[in-house]
Amino acid sequence: MKTRRVLFALTAATLLAGCRGQPVPPEKAAFVGEWQAETMYLLITQDGSVLYRRLKAGATSSLEGPFKGFVGDKFRAGIGPIGRTFTVTKPPHRAGGQWKMVVDGVELTRTRG
Q1: Model confidence, pTM
Q2: Is 45 helix (H, G, I), strand (E, B) or coil?
Q3: How confident is the model at residue 6 (pLDDT cuts 50, 70, 90)?
Q4: Which class for 101: exposed (0-12), middle (13-18), buried (19 or more C-beta within 10 A)?
Q5: C-alpha dihedral (57, 104, 86, 32), degrees to nearest 10
Q6: What does the buried/exposed string (b/e) look like for 66-93 if buried means 16 or more CB atoms within 10 Å of the residue's CB?
Q7: In this predicted model, what pLDDT tens digit does every residue of 14-47 receive, in sequence order?
Q8: Which domains does the chain have, with CATH numbers?
């Protein structure tokens, strides 16, 4: 019985350690903020949390989880296999006095930074 409790505690600690997000690196600070389009919402916090919602073809998909990092023009968020990779085709840039970026083919405008 004691062995089971120790094993359970170790497993729980490992899972919880894997749930923490990585902070957004300073060179990618422009990604931090609240981004919106008519069919998509994306919140990226400096400390490494991501909140995402998208309406596409009548269905809503969402994700709430830790930021896992950038790989080239993509970033990943989520817990373990329950995660998602976001493809950035236009990184954050100024256009018409607003911050914009294109993620997964959707142009987003930063509404709060």
Answers
A1: 0.81
A2: coil
A3: very low
A4: buried
A5: -110
A6: bbbbbeeeebbbbbeeeebebebeeebe
A7: 444 456 789 999 999 999 999 999 999 999 999 9
A8: 21-112 (2.40.128.500)
**Which residue, among 101, 112, 26, 16, has the nearest Cα to 66 in the 3D structure?**
16
pLDDT above 70: percentage of residues in the chain: 83
d(CA 92, CA 49): 18
Cβ-based burial of 108 (10 A; exposed 0-12, middle 13-18, buried ≥19):
buried
pLDDT of res. 9: 41
Name the amino acid, one letter, at 89.
Answer: T
Nearest to 25 by CA among 49, 46, 42: 46
**Amino acid (1-letter code) at residue 30:** A
